[in-house]
Amino acid sequence: MTEPVVTDRNPIPAPANRIPTPSSPAPDIVRCAYMEIVVTDLAASRAFYVDVLGLVVTEEDDEAVYLRSFEEFIHHNLVLRKGPVAAVAAFSYRVRTPEDLDLAVAFYEELGCRVERRTSGWTKGIGDSVRVEDPLGFPYEFFHEVEHVERLAWRYDLQTPGCLVRLDHFNQVTPDVPRAVAYMEDLGFRVTEDIQDEAGTTYAAWMRRKPTVHDTAMTGGDGPRMHHVAFATHEKHNIIAICDKLGALRLSDHIERGPGRHGVSNAFYLYLRDPDGHRIEIYTQDYWTGDPDNPVVTWDVHDNQRRDWWGNSVVPSWYTDASLVLDLDGEPKPLVTRTDDSEMEVTIGADGFSYTREGDAAKGFKLGNTL
Ligand SMILES: [Fe+2]
């Protein structure tokens, strides 16, 4: 199996150890809205996200910087909060109505999760919210009310060649992807793409609420950790401009992987590491997924075009490194080890290459062989 398999439904069976489905209906999630990350040097992080990447400062004080992208009309898409340990404090989703917050409370209390209601003003720019430690150990947040700010879509006097226009998605590391997917489907998400092997091991899955490839993805590994948060640009050339700017500033060490085109999602991509090592993806031009019968794409873990459509190798740090996440007291969550096969070990051999498609070596296509 080398070509991706296309079906019309989630191809990942729910596991025997699945998290029970609550009888309470799930909150109606509109989209991923913002991430709150803890940074150890607020000035250094501000310089990276504002001076280099060009995110817009909505508000700031000595403890935190609230940033948004150019097409955003809500208060922020990223909060940089000063703290002792680089980690993620919240993956935050906007819900459709204020009543959806009550649904979130009931949904997670039924799952036995720690749930906190936070009143307006706890986080600048948003109203009442619900924060939970979800069954996978991630700090999830839900909110509806939000302060509107100027949408800078038409402010071409302010936009730069590498302009970041939207928050696109989160990516989470969790040890048991099928267990995570079953819970996320209960929460109302739909699978759009996944990576499996012929034995049925699932290595990663992409899930959406808004009609793009994803609002979040689950990547198999020791977790809970945050793999990356992704911002969208309008065009591929905006990503090239970011690379050129980083080079001109002698900051190319921040580039971890890419630029390139993904197989999964078909998007053009670039991965950066911020001053604390938090991973940021710049992402553009995936596809519409909003029809009820949107085809689901399953990639073979041995297809070297799944992670990079041009077949370029994935650097090992991309598989191994990720950010810690915090519990509701602000303490780092301990990690649970993945016991299924890891994608890195399956696809990057002792030679350090990721070109492992079955049969290719015999055909002389393996990197390092003479054609
Ligand atoms: Fe991504």
Structure explained in plain terms:
With 371 residues, the protein is α/β, with parallel strands linked by helices. The chain has 6 helices and 19 strands. It has helices at 42-52, 99-110, 177-186, 236-248, 316-320, 343-347, and strands at 5-7, 29-39, 56-60, 64-68, 78-82, 87-95, 114-118, 129-133, 139-143, 166-174, 190-196, 202-208, 216-220, 225-232, 255-261, 268-273, 279-284, 296-300, 323-325. The protein has a 19-stranded mixed β-sheet that branches. Residues 360-371 have low confidence and may be disordered. Bound molecules: fe (ii) ion (FE2). Fe (ii) ion (FE2) binds next to strand 10, strand 14 and strand 17.
Bound molecules: fe (ii) ion
Beta-strand percentage? 25-35%
The CATH C-level name is Alpha Beta
- Cα distance, first to last residue? 23 Å
The helix fraction, in percent, is: 10-25%
CATH fold descriptor: 2,3-Dihydroxybiphenyl 1,2-Dioxygenase, domain 1
Q: What is the CATH H-level superfamily? A: 2,3-Dihydroxybiphenyl 1,2-Dioxygenase, domain 1
